[in-house]
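Z., the sequence and structure:
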Amino acid sequence: MKQGVAICHGECRIGGPCEPGWWGGWVVVGGSLSTELGRLLPHPVLEAVPYKSHKDRINIHGVFRPSTESGCDEPTRGSYRKTALDASFNALGTEHYLLTENNEAVRDMAGVVPYDAIVIAVNHERHGGGGLYNTYAILTVDHKWVGHLLLHEVGHSLAGLADEYYSSTPTAGLAYFPAGVEPREPNITALLDPANVKWKALATPGVSIPTPWGQDQFDALIEQERFVEASAHLADPALRETLGGRSRAPDTNHPGSIGRYWTV
């Protein structure tokens, strides 16, 4: 046992005996011995598809180490906290993008239990997070949108899904998806071959491609609710798999979100 590390096993193991072969373990790591563990782990991930049908094949462990201070760094606000995992807002110059570059500390904590996926819980009331494919998901947990945010960031880190942020005006975010190149991410397409779109097997027979999704009504709803789009990682002409996907999370603090979630 590493000095100063607490492991939560029994109450965090969901669904009974683990059946080897799907996930050896899902570890949540954090820099505080707080009550956030019980709130974050079971829901909503294990109530969402595809996790819901595999509850008996998922082990979840919590690994916590006390931090000198609570929270995380907020460079643009001049706030810096001494924490176990050195999490920080303003990653890549983006206000709500939260990451840690201290990979050694993350792996040192997570490595005390078997794991295949990492979620980093950050004690902060401000909405923020990030998800790096095959690396980790990280999110703040002291706000009402924690469940939605968890699903969103796990979609990035575990499934390699793309953001589906929407804006009626195309932005520089399209640079992530060069013209003429089909995106690697399974939930978006450049529609280079409409007859063989990557989710063809899931589409309703006879549905039009691209499929009208009610953009006018959606824009009206945005205006009505006074949501403001601050950034977009995906805009027309790139297409999304579904309007109901968990690529977005509703939030009152983060201006770049309008309630879309991953479904893949």
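The first helix runs from residue 36 to 40. The chain is about 15% helix and 10% strand.

Let me know what you think.
H.
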